[in-house]
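Dear colleagues,

For the upcoming journal club I promised to circulate an example of a predicted protein-ligand complex. I picked one with magnesium ion because it came up in last month's discussion. The inputs are reproduced below in full, followed by the predicted structure.
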Amino acid sequence: MVWAPESLPDAGRRGGPEADGGPPDHVSITDVAELTSLEVLRLMRSGPRGLLEAHAEDRLLRYGENAVAPRSPASWLRRLARSLRDPFAMVLLCLGLVSAAIASWGTACVVLVLVVVSCVLRSGGEHRADRSVAALRELVATTATVRRRADETAAPVSREIPVDHLVPGDVIGLGPGDLVPADVRLLRSSGLTVHQAALTGESHPVAKHAVDVPADAETDLFDRPYLCFHGSSVASGSGFAVVVATGAGTRFAGAHRGGMRERGPSSFDRSVNGISWLLIRFMLLIPPVVLLTNAALRGRGLEALPFAIAVAVGLTPEMLPVIVTTALARGSAVLARSHGVIVKRLPALHDLGAVHVLFTDKTGTLTQDLPILDCSLDPDGRPDPDVLRWAAVNSLWTLQLADLPNPDALDEAILDAAERLGGTLPASDGVAALPFDPVRRSSCAVVQSPDRTAVHTLVVKGAAEDVLDRCTLVRTGGTEVELDAAARGRIRRLAEEKAAEGLRLLAVGLADRPARPGSYGPGDEHDLTFLGFVGLRDTLTPHAEDALAVLAGRGVAVKVLTGDHPGTAARACRDLGLDPGTVVVADHIDGLTDAAVAELAMRSTVVARCTSEHKARIVRALRAAGHTTGFLGDGVNDLPALRAADVGICPSDAVDVTRQTADVVLASKDLTAIDHAIMAGRRSTGNIVTYLRIVLSSNLGNVIAMLGAGLLLPFLPMLPAQVLVQNLCFDAAQLAFAFDRPDPAVLRRPSRLRPRDLTRFIAAFGPLNALADLATFAVLASAVPWSAQVTGQSAFHSGWFVENLLTQGVAILVLRGRRHVPLPLGIAVCFLVIVGVLLPLSPLAPLLGMTTLPFAYYLLVAIVVLLYGVVLRAANAFFERRHADRP
Ligand SMILES: Nc1ncnc2c1ncn2[C@@H]1O[C@H](COP(=O)(O)OP(=O)(O)OP(=O)(O)O)[C@@H](O)[C@H]1O
Ligand SMILES: [Mg+2]
């Protein structure tokens, strides 16, 4: 500790209401790099007791909000322009341009209408989705702990404020998991390490500590131990700091002008893109094929071009982006409303539905994180309250000196137990503290007894193996003896025994050192004397057992990655009905290849003694092996794994940086909520898959029939305008798919958009649809006396138009499977039937080149449609049976 709070002048105390107008404009972290802490505080017109609330308000007006790029919602125009960049819109536009170029104005107009309608629908849908996602994100917005005073005489109060409201000169507290909210100069610190990967690319946490007078000016700004930067996060330890630059004035904003780096495309984005590009290639192929075949077989020239274009337009699933956005946005809105689960990135909802390996940590998910002391044992396993007392000394001083914003549950439990035990703690004053760090797996307090001022006592408590490794002596029966291999073995076995009872074990070690000024570091934790263990019992989460069973039934394998002892983790799993098998200890995987890690992880259920890197490595290895993974965690040590997983999930009370990183935030850390989220994901994906199957297969069927008919007939089988109107009707009806309820069978297994499955389906059902069309030809041939005359042609056109709309309606009903039809879909099908039957009878018919059809035709077409429905149902059932077991 280099800075005593009361030893500095307090600018806020002297100055009147911001008489000096706050710090100069545009102070950056570079300007203060060489100043002493005192000079920095003076420059920022602040003091250790923080700003006055009134001054802070003035400064907020003057310096603006602390936001890197003030987030203004994208304007309507910009959204429209962006939706034009969609590949389908592009292809349609090209087709429109070609139509205009050959003066086929009707086609050009309809294509234009299609583009405008789909862009408006899409940007409208995206706007709504963005707004609700933004509103949901607000709910998980991060806060900063700021120290401020109500007026000159009031004592400083630490409170949480939205990060946006921080101003230069604010004094803030930092703790594990906090995002560093601005560029700051440290005033005080304790065991502080920060992740600066976003700024420097360095993946390991770097140590930071306050210094009064900066030493060497040579080092890079990011390497200075007394400066912390916006964009980094606290890995361990704590500190107090004064804000130097906020918002656009930070280094992070400077490095990321033009927007934050977004994550690369997710598995969902890749699937959708894959499907889109497949279709686009196909669409671009159609016009030349139609033209060439027509020219070769029918001797038609460029006059067939509008028809060729219309056929290509007919194949385009213009509504695909609209349906995808709407289905996902609806799913996540329902999820937020009914289960408090917030999906921060829409595609993450699809990925949730696809998860089939769910990793979780132990504490808080399987157990409640409300530990209670169970025992305090000497190295031979005999009860010894002294061990608890020393553990309490460690807890007391780490909590007091390390300014941790959220006290650790284990430390609190130890202090409670020591209080209940009565008696006094070994007399001590705190000298320094190294708070718990998940890599060291220990915490250390340095204390001094009033009657032995020449001695500093290091009190270390932490994971059994890690503390034991740092001990060279053991205290038994009041005497200290050397800790030989036999004694080590005995102590290890004792630890295993106790862990197998489900206890969380902490070992305690001590060392006396000559008192010295200056700070202590992890390097000082050596040559300790082993005192014994404290064991804490954590109760199991009540609904975890049922939730685990439900998840297993849904094809989701739950695996536990924990930093705890293998025995403790295995016991918790067993008590919850989850067979732990052989527990892997994380050190094991260090020497393995990624493929071997994936294989091992798939075979086992629990990996214990994981560091955060181990957790991330296991997740990455499984992803690389083709598994879709979810990770549920709430600690700083879960961060890399949350990033590595397809879907990162955390509870809403997790540390800030975790909530920022996660894709999905749960109201509480609860496996039941995850189950709801997974089901919502499967539902949305199920709707998208049904839509794609039906639309693409009937579009393909139409194209095949159109090509075939074009060659069989002496005239065009449909006029371009008719193809386009029919396409508009299909599009309108298909919007209802976003509101469908998928087949319960789809919900039983992880669901994913698989381009290959889709191709298989389309390849089977496209030709079937074409067959129905060909049957219609036969009907038309018998019922309508068509030949080359104009009235005969328009009768053919009308007849086919009617049949197409009706078969589309049947396809929608049948290919969904045997289940209840929700209202929007019912309306869509009725719409198709009504338009199909009435359009040729309406006054619009002559405009579109259609005529009234004889009654007999309707009867015959009804039979064809009915037969089509029956065949389709049988084929669908056959297809489902054949492909049901594919993963
Ligand atoms: N406050 C503490 N003081 C000392 N040691 C601790 C403290 N908290 C945890 N430990 C030790 O560090 C080990 C790892 O704990 P940590 O909380 O990092 O694991 P984790 O991966 O978050 O576990 P979980 O899966 O239970 O969330 C614990 O088993 C314990 O031995
Ligand atoms: Mg944890």
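Two points we might discuss: The chain has four domains: 5-66+166-255, 76-131+265-334+678-883, 339-367+541-677, 372-537. The first strand starts at residue 51 and ends at 52.

See you all on Thursday,
B. R.
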